[in-house]
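User: Could you check the structure of this?
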Amino acid sequence: MLFPLRLLLILTLFAGTLACSRPEQGDQAPKLQTPVPTSGASKVVRIVFIGRKHACECTAKAIAASTAALEQALGTPSSIPIERLDIDVDTVAIRPLLQQRPLQALPGIYLLDSAGTVLQLLQGQLTKEQVTAALQR
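Assistant: Sure, the predicted structure tokens are below.
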């Protein structure tokens, strides 16, 4: 009787550690990541912000900070449409973006051209300056 209880406890703890919204690389994922430039001089016409609906506290803080940075960089009203998706809910809509550029850290901000091609991917907790620099490339 004690063995099944211990097994259940271990599995519960294991599931709890996986519930944190860290990316698949776990703690090795960078908290801040600079933009990754791509070739071509296409203009950003659409932004897709990928967060997580059911996020742990640390990821929720990074999502909130990056949302604020994006809003500050774009101004009000934003001249570039922003689509907000959650990786744990909108998996089908996110899949084409992940195939172009895999996401390593949440939140992810995909900068797209008019053809839907990913120009840049910003990841992790970002500042207004990082977002502004990426938009000016």
